[in-house]
Amino acid sequence: MGRNAGWVNVGQDHDTAQFATESLRRWWYAVGTVAYPAATQLLICADGGGSNGSRVRLWKVALQALADETGLAISVCHLPPGTSKGNKVEHRLFAHITMNWRGRPLVSHEVIIELIGATTTRTGLTVQAVRDTGLYPTKIKVTDEELAAVHLAPHAFHGEWNYTISPAVAAA
Q1: What range defines the domain where residue 69 resides?
Q2: Residue pair 164/151 in contact by the 8 Å Cβ criterion
Q3: 136: which of 16, 40, 76, 140 fits an S-S bond (Cβ 3.0–4.6 Å)?
Q4: Has residue 22 been placed in a domain?
């Protein structure tokens, strides 16, 4: 938000917790490591439901893998249920993307990526879009043991929605 820059991972398969986490991974390596080279933690503001919902076990397990890979502590703050309309990304990014492609046929992934990438605003918003050709199967079950292995520390305020996942081992 502070950089007035957006980054969109355009998938072609299912919107799963693994897809959401892969989107974060791609952003981190494409943008985050350059923009924030000294970062030790990452803050994610997320809706309360969907693939990255506060009760999605696979989301937490996948974030643990990302924390382990990057060495970043990942703090997640979910919007309370029913309040996703207050999500600033919806207003500052996706509203402009939608206006930019209004009335244009979305006939291919290439057209979608081109239109998203051409999105700008008078205040200087720029958007980068990339294509994700990965496959993200649905209905993956997370065992109690897998969930217990997540280094999750609930925050004092609504720990069911706000928490930090720490790397199990510092990244190499």
Answers
A1: 5-165
A2: no
A3: 16
A4: yes
Model pLDDT, residue 160: 93
Return the pLDDT at 172.
47
Is residue 152 domain-resident?
A: yes
Inter-CA distances, 110 with 15, 58, 106, Å: 19, 30, 9
CA distances from 40 to 72, 74, 99, 171 (A): 5, 9, 36, 11
CA distance linking residue 126 with residue 164, whole number of Å:
29
Is 172 within a domain? no
Check: CB of residue 22 under 8 Å from CB of residue 131.
no
Tell me the C-alpha distance between 66 and 5, whole Å: 22
Chunked in runs of 10, what are the mean pLDDT values of the chain (172 residues)?
85 95 97 96 88 93 98 94 64 79 89 90 90 96 97 96 90 48
What confidence score (pLDDT) does residue 90 get? 64
The CA dihedral of 172, 45, 147, 12, to the nearest 10 degrees, is: -80
Amino acid at 19: F
Domains of the chain: total: 1
Q: What is the pTM of this model?
A: 0.87
